Amino acid sequence: MAGGQERILRRRIKSVQSTRKITKAMELIAASQISRSQARIVANRPYRHGMRRIIVEAALADPAGAAKLLATPTDVDVAIVLVVTGDRGLSGAYNSAALRAGERLVRKLRAEGTHVRLFCIGKKAGAFYRFRGMEVEESFVGFVDRPSFTDARRVASVIAAPFIDGEVQQVLLVSTRFLSAATQAVEVEQLLPLAMPAVPVDNAPTKLKGYTEFEPEVEKLLTSLAPRALESEIFSALLEGAASFHVSQQRAMAAATDNADELGQTLSRIMNRARQDSITTEIMEIVSGAEALRSGK
Amino acid sequence: MATLKVEIVTPESALWVGEAKALVARSSDGDFTILPQHTDTVGDIVAGVVRVDTADGEVAFAVHGGYFQVGPDETEGVTLATVLAGVAERTSDIDVARAQVAKEVAEAQIALETRNEQHDTASHLLAHADLARAELRLSAASK
Question: Would you call B13 an interface residue with chain A, using a CB distance cutoff of 8 Å?
């Protein structure tokens, strides 16, 4: 019956509207997190650059020690892959892009005969790979929304241990880089041996002259510096991942809100037509009933 | 005139940036002082108090281990001294009550694990690190 259809439509409109409320709220929350997480990236920059500058300085002074810590390994038997995703979904392609890149990387390494040990940051990564029957050694969860330096430190110590023991020759990081508010991209980076960028820092104030003094001697310094540099790199990856997550969630939720608006509009149009139809039918019935009565007289 | 620019930087923020007369800290080789036009140096800083001597008096920081670099700044004639620390705070910002509580908690933890002969567990090492941090905060704040 026409009235029944109208009631069903009214119920669907209500459900679309309440979904819209949720997506709108998530959009606003994500938007408020964006500027905060972006500010943290900016605040982290001096430390990150300072760390790189020191590493480069020390590496130049001690090429032999640097070769061990900084070179790209030629023969990798075992590699660690560390994938960074979010703890939560509803964030567009943020998680899936990193997960797919991670999977591709693992497949490529395995094809080359490298044994891969998988580590995950964020609930989504652990769940995804475990579901696919891949062994995840450790999954770090609960801090990706707002990573602290202590979290980065904890991850770094777990990741670095097998490398220092020589069980692993390479550590690769798959994470989303916050290139700008408009672009984020999944990148694969070598964490260990420490990958030093060709241009260490934009506008590095230090001109590398090679007669820098070291306290204590550079060999000792470089060894103790390496874990700190790793922490710093992981921390900035976490910060950029968090910012990317919020941006992508905000965008996804804005799109969902728009879709809900559109769906609500379409549904109410259909509902109005159904109501009109039922009114028309009723009038027809009354008119034809009256007609029948009159002609029956 | 030769000037010295000092930056105290942690992963969370640049804690302090400004012009100074001298920077005093301790590396694993011993105490050192950085003055304007110091030669280029890279080194570590052991947990302790880092002092920055400025025109308006002294600013002190509790630095829980880190590194420093001295080099020329972009501006001609300025020496730049950067201190990188995983954890650091201005001594005036230290919450003494909180540090005291942290110290007691860490001591209790250590005492408990020593009784149970768990000397090399991760939590035991962490408790020792917590204790060291709390003690440094207390001693830095009391100066």
Answer: yes
Across the beta sheet with B41-45, the strand order is: A213-215, B41-45, B66-72, B78-85, B3-9, B14-20
Lowest pLDDT segment from A124-133, A204-213, B81-90:
A204-213
Rg (C-alpha) for chain B, rounded Å, is 17
pLDDT band at A204 (very low <50, low <70, confident <90, very high): very low
The number of distinct structural domains making up chain A is 2
| Interface check B78 vs A, CB under 8 A | no
Same domain, residue pair A154 and A266: no
Instruction: Report the gap between the CA of B58 and the closest CA in chain A (Å).
Output: 23
pTM of the model: 0.84
As for the ipTM of the complex, it is 0.83
In this structure, the answer to whether residues A66 and A88 fall within a common structural domain is: yes
Q: Which residue from B13, B32, B42 is facing A58, i.e. has the nearest CB?
A: B42
* B contacts of A50 (beta carbons < 8 Å): 7, 9, 69, 82, 84
Task: Please report the DSSP string for A64-133 in residue order.
Answer: HHHHHHHSPPS--SEEEEEEE--SS--STTHHHHHHHHHHHHHHHHHHTT-EEEEEEESHHHHHHHHHTT
- Note the pLDDT of residue B138: 86
